Amino acid sequence: MSRQQIELADEAATLQLGASLASKISTGLVYLQGPLGSGKTTLARGWLRALGHEGPVKSPTYTIVEPYRLRGVDVLHIDLYRIDNSRELDYIGLLEQLELSHLQLVEWPEQGRGQLPPANVVISLATQREGRIAIISYFNEYSSMC
Question: pTM higher than 0.90, yes or no?
Fold first, then answer.
């Protein structure tokens, strides 16, 4: 495992971090952790736009999963905030969807504990003074990206 910490001054810096990560990571399971308002969806928005998405990117809080096909890459933007029990992931077929996609950006992964596979990358976001901080942990073959 390798780890890096990045200070994010504002929303633009969070979007830029997402774009930067998109240039390095086009496959794998990415957990986006942090409290409400910490920038998880903003980071995902920057990532998806860097991969070529031109429309709006909003949190899939109510739809749970938003699929994208971008430059030949199948991406899932997932928000598990409304999941009460991780067994619900079986009912909605999420685990099968994970296997059929290339890249998965999962907000609130703790709601899927015990059902979700281990992440390749975990990004923990928190507010700090007037900005945010991101701690990125890379696992397995992704460790060399730090």
Answer: yes
